[in-house]
Amino acid sequence: MAATPVSLSSSMANAIRALAMDAVQQANSGHPGAPMGMADIGVALWKRHLKHNPANPQWADRDRFVLSNGHGSMLIYALLHLTGYELSLDDLKAFRQMHSKTPGHPEVGVTPGIETTTGPLGQGITNAVGMALAEKLLAAEFNIDGHTIVDHRTYAFLGDGCLMEGISHEACALAGAWKLNKLIALYDDNGISIDGQVAPWFIDNTPQRFAAYGWNVIDAVDGHDIDAVDAAIAQAKLSTDKPTLIVCKTHIGKGSPNRANTSKAHGEPLGAAEIALTREALGWSAEPFTIPADVAAAWDCRAAGAAAQAEWDERFEAYVRACPTQAVEFERRMIGDLPDAFAEIAVDAVGDAHDKAETVASRKASQLALEHFTAQLPEMLGGSADLTGSNLTNTKSTPALRFDAAGAPVRNAEGQLGRHINYGVREFGMAAIMNGIALHGGYIPYGGTFLTFSDYSRNAIRMAALMKLRVVHVFTHDSIGLGEDGPTHQSIEHAASLRLIPGLDVWRPADTCETTVAWTMALANRNRPSALLLSRQNLPYAPKSTADEITKGAYVLSEPSDVGFKKGKKPDAVIIATGSEVQLALAAQAELAKDKIAVRVVSMPSTTVFDRQSVEYKSDVLPRKVPRIAVEMGVTDFWWKYGCAAVIGIDTYGESAPAGVLFKHFGFTTENVVATVRKVLGE
Fold first, then answer.
1. Tell me: the pLDDT tens digits for 521-568?
2. 8 Å CB contact between 521 and 505
3. Whole-prediction pTM value?
4. CB 512 within 8 A of CB 487
5. How far is CA 115 from CA 58, 63, 355, in A?
């Protein structure tokens, strides 16, 4: 009996299945089930709908594609290779190997065509929400009648794991509220996770859940019928006021006679014998890592991609002629450059803080800096997780973001588009959405919550650092200084734990000048996220001759000569302090001077920045053989790395009481700092 002929479209899907099987088998590691199950969906989207140019993965108006179920990375690697990106068969053969372009989970900046790093489930779809929001806002800002230069969609593949993670609830609810009609998510509804059939522990009615969020839902699509998926995507693209979820019914490990529909297909190689059986079942006779010429030709998207970009280039050239200033601004924003005048803007802001020398909480100092920067940097897009009045992330230049009944962003009476986002009580969602906004380009996102709740955001912060994204986290209420709310809200270990995240700059400023410098550095550093830890209580301005060395993370704030000793007098001890505790250090320095004990005070607003300075600079600030005492309202372990002889900190949780009572109870008093210095010096 003759074998049933396989259509070209089915062969295109089988090419994905074969590459996934072969790469996972060769690596002896990976997840073949999802790529095999979603291969037909991949054909429908990538060949029939996705607007992209393999020769230019950074084309501004390309559609964004996110593989939220990032463990199925061979799906996207196969798609990138087949459609013509610079990802060779040799790269696929090096799957999951050291320094390859095909790591175990997709990584932005490593593989051409990868839009975001995925793997921690739920964050990919949340990044996609951020990307779709950025597209909608840029379109409202830059498109004009007769000239549409921002007009693309964001597509995401996701699975049961993404939907079980709580972050998907946070982000998808916001996508519905924001009416992100150009966001289309395709759900791989195969009913299998690592532990087996999901029914005993995942019984959500997903279509109803998304309908309740305000999504358009296309249910019960046969995920192995390419034409049916194609039609569903075409229908989704017609939505004018809602994001769309397409529920694709699939079989994990599709084609494998003995592994399909089982958890065995999820996260381990099929094995040589099963691969042979699968090839036979699929009618795929090509050797491993070999694509038949007709299938390769059918997949090649280079000509179509070049044509799509050429058409956009013509439209953009017309836009340049119609509004040249806006065109230059659009290009600057998408590249991620700051305005040419940024250095002057920053100097003015820091100089203003220095001259005014105000006594305010550092959260207020942050808002003062934001007033200055947001007025002159239209790319700054702020927000708060339902704590705007506490985080102070709103400014006169950033009205609240709102959408009308048709889904369009609303302008206020002055014609301003909203630039401050009410995220609701969704810290994790906010953090990962900000990552998506930064990945899309065109905006610098920042968002606020209490420092204690950075625990909710932590994995998205880590992902921002891993992806080297310019995202700014505003964390207020940074210590026991917040007072009566008690230990649930008082940060103890949080500053230290954030400092341990590689690639994250953490700032805990002591006054308005340090806070403004922190903002300047956060905005200027395009390859690092930043976290600003800010006080609720007022902090006096610490007099300083210059603000230049604040940019180095730590600097000598006060020498013994500033409290009566001869100029050049060597210190007997160095007190290192951050944030509100700098004032304690200065008070102790003055008190110790009365007994002829010379102390240098070092303010260290950013340990992470200071650690990157030269050995010479660090030795100048913290001279060798001079005892060091650190003062910070947090865990003590972190500070021993600076060779401290003593650390005044907190290694227990806080208490519920007024701030002043807490400071005395935990030893954050001038008397205790003085006594500690004396003890270190043997007096």
1. 999 999 999 999 999 999 999 999 889 999 999 999 999 999 999 999
2. yes
3. 0.98
4. no
5. 9, 10, 44
